[in-house]
Amino acid sequence: MAQYKYGDFLKQNNHAAFDERHAPGSTATNAGIYRCVGCGDEIAIATGHVLPPQNHHQHSPNSGKIEWQLLVFAQQR
User: Fold this and answer.
1) How far apart are CA 64 and CA 28, in angstroms?
2) Enclosing domain of residue 56
3) How many independent structural domains does the chain possess?
């Protein structure tokens, strides 16, 4: 689970980008922290970089399929 110390630097947002699920090996549409929906593993990635492919990120078959979901969006100015 993503953690933070200073809540003043975070803002809740209900943008649809947080609801999208991305396949392994797909391009990250936003910079930030992505979470595997199946096992809860988290990664930080820059916009345009490739999310971990199926053969790189493995978890128990009981955890379901590997899908990445945006957890925290990193806003750039």
Assistant:
1) 21
2) 24-73
3) 1
